[in-house]
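Case study 2.
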Amino acid sequence: MELYNYYRSSASYRVRIALALKGLAYDYKTVHLAKNEQFTESFAAVSATRLVPLLRDGEHHLTQSLAIIEYLDETHPQPPLLPADAAGRARVRAIALDIACEIHPLDNLRVLRYLVRDLKVSEDDKNRWYRHWVETGLEAVERQLQARPATYCHGESPTLADCVLVPQIFNARRFECRTDHVPQVMRVFDACMKLDAFERTRPENCPDAE
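Prediction:
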């Protein structure tokens, strides 16, 4: 398998965590987003969307981090990243989507660049935008976790939801977002970071880290 990704991409980090949890080897392929390498013809040859992450597994070219993780869970079932019961799977997916759909799209690199370059938003206002959506978005996750506290987002082993939560906290810290108002979120984050799969795949441990 080959993973096309960028060390600072939170979506890429999600997939790195999942691969590590499952003990799967892969070739690390760097696509430097800040240098616009996602728009090169060489990357376009493997990615129709020109987005990272992209997982190449044989003839399969897989995009979108959550879809990739579910593919990995179906093709390599152990350890499972989704619960065995339908209600549990729905809850895990909901927590993951609270981050992947309600927070991340508002704050990814394409949006931030558009705010600054096209709408002429100041750097301070851009950062205020970022913090607002992260801080308010994490409140929804906090309420989910408060309703059913456990070591991880759902139960006593990491799931898809944890693969999505941890990278968001890394981004939150990078942009100096508040996290003291989401103690359950941070408790789960700390539990995850005690596991090797989360620690060794963190951005600063990647081959392309700067």
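The first strand starts at residue 2 and ends at 5.
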